[in-house]
């Protein structure tokens, strides 16, 4: 076999590799968003897919929910283009709540009561999905 034939075979093998022609594989998966359905196994360069926020999340207006297939066979997107919906501040008369991150979908908060009162119910709550919105799974009271 001569050098030209070997180079031809190497070139053909490289073209057969995924991404060798500048295409992208399946679109990325995100906890907070889903791609359009159905997805393909491969996409041409400069393909743009618009994602939809999953339940419990809402679009961040400062970021685009689109991902783009780049010439280097990778997908590009803004990070966290969907953010957790907020459960807001729970009302607990004669008490307070504390959190370490935020009040968004999936967050956990802890409750305490003012001096002379005690927590009735579970002393922590989680921001959970209820239908298409989010709310605290329960809120105790101080007695």
From TrEMBL:
Q: Does this UniProt record's set of keywords contain Glycoprotein?
A: yes
InterPro entries found in the cross-reference section: SEZ6_CSMD_C4BPB_Regulators (IPR051277), Sushi/SCR/CCP_sf (IPR035976), Sushi_SCR_CCP_dom (IPR000436)
**What are the alphabetically sorted keywords of the record?**
Disulfide bond, Glycoprotein, Repeat, Signal, Sushi
Gene3D superfamilies reported in the protein's UniProt record? Complement Module, domain 1
Return the Pfam families for the record.
Sushi
Q: Where is the Sushi domain?
A: 22-84, 85-143
Signal sequence span is 1-22
Q: Which residues cross the membrane?
A: none
State if Glycoprotein is listed as a keyword.
Answer: yes
Q: Superkingdom, according to UniProt?
A: Eukaryota
Kindly provide the name given to this protein in its UniProt entry.
Sushi domain-containing protein
- Give the organism the record lists: Callipepla squamata
